[in-house]
Every structure is written in structure tokens, then in C-alpha cells.
Specification:
- The complex is a heterodimer of chains A (about 425) and B (about 180).
- Chain A has about 425 residues and is mainly β.
- Chain A is built from three helices and 32 strands.
- In chain A, the strands form seven sheets. In chain A, strands 3, 4, 5, 6, 7 and 8 form a six-stranded mixed sheet that branches. A five-stranded antiparallel sheet of chain A has the order 2-31-30-29-28, with no helix packed on it. Chain A has a four-stranded antiparallel sheet with strand order 11-10-9-32, with no helix packed on it.
- In chain A, a hairpin with a 5-residue loop joins strand 30 and strand 31.
- In chain A, helix 1 (about 55-65) crosses helix 3.
- Chain A is globular and about 70 Å long.
- Chain B is about 30% helix and about 15% strand.
- Chain B contains four helices and five strands; from the N terminus they run αββαβαβαβ.
- Chain B has a four-stranded mixed sheet with strand order 2-5-3-4.
- In chain B, strand 3 (about 105-110), helix 3 (about 120-140) and strand 4 form a beta-alpha-beta unit.
- In chain B, helix 2 packs across helix 3.
- The longest helix of chain B is centred in the last third of the chain and has 21 residues, at about 120-140.
- The two termini of chain B are about 35 Å apart.
- Classes of the chains: A mainly beta (about 425), B alpha+beta (about 180).
- Chains A and B meet through strand 1 and strand 11 of A and helix 1, strand 1, helix 3 and strand 4 of B.
- Strand 1 (about 15) of chain A pairs antiparallel with strand 1 of chain B.
Chain lengths: ~425, ~180
Amino acid sequence: MFRPTRRIARSLAFAVALLVAGAAAAQLRVEITGVGSNQFPIAIAKFQRDGQAPQEVDAIIRANLQRSGLFRLIDTGSAALPENATVAHAEWKSRGADALVVGSIARLADGRFDIRYRLYDTVKQVQLDGLSYVSTANDLRLNAHRISDRIYEKLTGDRGVFATRIAYVVQLGRNQYELQVADADGGNAQPALRSREPIISPAWSFDGTRLAYVSFETGKPVVYVHTLATGERRAVANFRGSNSAPAWSPDGKTLAVVLTRDGISQIYSIGVDGGNLRRLTNSGAIDTEPTFSPDGRYIYFTSDRGGGPQIYRMSPTGTDVQRVTFNGDYNVSPRVSPDGRQIAYVGRRDGRFQVHVMELATGQELAVTDTVMDESPSFAPNGRLLLYATEVNGRGILASASTDGRVRTRLSGPSGDVREPTWGPFTK
Amino acid sequence: MQNARILTLGLAALFVAGCATTQLEEPKPAPVTEKAAPPPAPAPAPAPVTRAEPAPQPIDPLNDPKSPLAKREVFFDFDKFDIKPEYAGLVEAHGRYLASRKDRRVVIEGNADERGSREYNLALGQKRADAVRSRLQILGASAAQIETISYGEERPRCQQHNEDCWWQNRRADIVYK
């Protein structure tokens, strides 16, 4: 069988380029379109400053908590409140704040920064948390996210996801594609790969160090694994036909992939080193979009074996196939929640493509978005939010929704179509 | 390469979460291999004297804009891969042509509109291309003549986000090589 696709591309050489400039311009802008039913009122006072810091730590914390939809910010005025001052609990309570955050940033002699923060419960009049970090200028943003995570966890009981990262693809022009990695708020975006051909289906390894994805750089879809810290990448599945839809096993040793080497799109497993290829499905219908449950017991996937695309699951060796979705005639792109109790997927109902969440125990499903061209849902590592791609005013943007559908935000870049988002795991 | 490696590591150190960028170069054209000139044809036999005019050269119908072979696009319904009756004749013409010209090769390129998932659309485009291929084979084209590929929704011909565009993108192209 001859190969139709551009042989020339096979001689591609890889080069690394400095791309620090321009990263700031690629920042995503956040817009909140829905909030939680019971917002926790919190006051985050302006941090006391000693020396110029390149990041406004308190502003980042405020934006994080507000974006979560679970907090209502109480105005604290323009004056900074010293981190070690005596707190007038009753006064803050009377201003409507059930919690108060104070802090300070001081530049140290070696150029690093000392960040101190305290969280108070103004109702019980006690300190809930207090910590100091010594941070490099580069890590100020990360530490602002870590403080946000502590506040979130103290007040909601759930682990925060502000210090996690997301990956997504931006199409900036007809032949201009970038795989980017950014903080969960869309800030600090860094390109991991630039290509003249499409990039789709990025997937995080469970330890957050590597991304698998599909690149069309040789003229056809090939699965790559890319180590983020070094930029090192290798083709893992490059068989005759199409190679796509990579999914990591929880132990990081194998990928589930979709190949057409034997005909129609079917699911295979392959070692991360490219060895040990095994066919997992044998359906004669489209089987695609595999994804492992975090406990490794199931592979969920999309199949049109019943006539239209629906979600199924099977064991990691391809046995015990069960159909999971039954509502509507188009359900695709499954993801399993971190606790394994829910799945998210895109369902088409009355012509609208929306992210749905299903409780696996009951089969109850809920559309959680207010948009109608949704794609690629992925759970935040705490299971509370879903990140997805959608289209608003003819442009591809990222959006998030809480799994109860109440909290909604949109993240849009200054230009280009943003798509294929995937939320990374908790980091240490 | 040594320089590139140093640059990568330096870059990783710069980034908070250690993230280096890989930039793919523009594809370089492959070196063109000059094919050896075909051996000189044997000297033509002298034309029979009785023939007054040269024999008319047969026109390859592939190059005839009026031939049914000039049409090389098959369109599909949403989430469907069956060849609709209005495209049966077109596909049949190509099948018969390929059966009669075993030296011809085609690539069937499957495409999908932008709605739904990119991976499912990639698989759907493949199924559309495969549907055209199996019809061509039924009509006598051989497997070796036909390659299929799917671009899913990645190469839309029409970029607007409405049905006026979507129908054009739910398409399989028969591309002669």
C-alpha cells in the first residue's frame, strides 16, 4: 500500500526556540457567568508591601476565590492591613465578612520575597491558618495559588485546584497551532509545541510531567509523548493509517490509543516506549476516545456500535463491555471523575451539544453548561469543576462549569481559537 | 544540537513549572530524485502507406471536464457515512474508471463538520472515506489503487459556523495521484 501523505514531512527536524516574549500576550481573560447558590462572604485585605513585587499576590488570591463561584468578596478599602495586626473580628463581621485574609510581602536582601498570610474566622474569632513562604520572583504566582488553595480547603473542606495546570491547543492562524500549558486561571501560559499542522487530544500523565497528544505534523495523525520539563518528545504510535486519542493508564506505563492500521478505528494499548501493542476492541464499528478511570478498573470510550455514538466501558484488557449512556442519540468524549462516581461527556440534545454529568450509580444526567457547541470536558483534580471548549460569537474559547452546573466561567484569549483543554493533576 | 540542548535546559529553569517549547520547523521539501530518462523507444515501424491520417489519440476521460469523472466530491449527512443515491453515479464512474486503468491511484480523503468531538469526527471521516473505497472496490478497483485518510474536522473547506458551511465539510474527496 503506498502512502498518500507528505513524505517530505518525515524529514522534519526539531528545533527549540526561545518563546518567553509573547507569552504574556497569550494570557486568557476570565469572565464569570454563574455563581454558587451559597457564596461564602470573605474579605481579603490588601497585602502590606515592603519593596516592589512583580506579582500582586493578594489580587491573584481574590481573583481565584471569586472565579471559583463559591466566595463573595467583601470590600476592604484601599488601605493595607498589616499581617500581624490585631483583628477587629466584630467589625469585619458587621461588614458582612465571615472570614478575613491579611498578609504581607517583603523583599529580602537576596532578591527573594517573604510572603506571610493569615486566615481568620470572624464569627468564631479564631485564626484558621497562618503561613509564610520564601519565594523567588518567578514563584510568586504559584505561591499566590497555593495560598488560595489553603483558604479554599479551610473554608470549603475540598482541596483547591488553583495551583494546578491546564493544557490546551490554540489555533492562531491557518497554519499556526500551539499546544500551551498554563496555570488553572489561564495565567502564565507557555507554549509547549508550535506546529504548522493541527494538534489535538492532549492528555496529561497522572503524575503531570508528560503530555501525550496527536500531531498532524507529518501529514497524518501520529501519537506523541512529550516531557514538559525538557521538551523531549517521541512518536509512540505511528502505524499505517491514523493514530489518535491517547489516554494514560494510571501507572503511566501504557497508553490506550485509537488506530486504523487494521481497518476501522479501534482501541489498542501500547507501551509508552512504543512496544507491546495489543488490540482491545474488535467491534467493526467506531471505537474511540478511550479514557481510564483513575482506579484503573475501566476504560470508558465512545462507540457507534449501537448505530450512533454512545459511551461504553470495558476492562483494561478489553473484556466485559457495558453500555453506559442511553439518553439521546449522540454522546461522546467521556471523562471519569477523580472519585470514579461520575462521568462527564458531551451529549447532543435538540441540536445542542452540551457537557453533561452522569451519576454512575443512578444513571441520572445533568447538562451543566449554558453553551451549545461544547467539546472536550475534563474534570478538575478535586472533581468540583469541569473545563471544556465551546464556541461563543464564532470563536473557540475555554469555559468551566461546576459539576452541579451552578458556577460558570469563560476564559478567552486575545486572538485565535482555543480548544482541546485538559485539566492536569494535583502537583506536589 | 549541543546549543539547542543547552537552550532547552536553560529555558526549563526559567519557567515556574519547567516547560520548554518545541518548535517544529517548516517541512523541507524532500530531495527530488531525478528519474532516469526512459530508454529510447524502438524506432517506430513505418506507417502503413494506406493510412492517410494519424490515428486520433484517445482522450483520458479524467481530464475531460464534461466527464462524470470531473466530479470528485461525495457529501454526507450529519453523523452519517452512507453514500446517498445522488452520489452513487459519481462513485460508480470512478470505480469503473479505476477498474479499467489499473495504473491509476487515488486517495480518498474523509472530512467532517466541526460539531461534536474531534476524535469522533476523525473516526467518522475515516468511515466516510472507507465507505467510498469499498464502493469503488465493488466496481472493480483494486485495494492497491486506493488509500484512505481522514482529516476529521481539522481541514474545513468552509470556516463559518452554520449549516451553509457544515454540509460542505461533511465530505469525502477522491484525489487522483
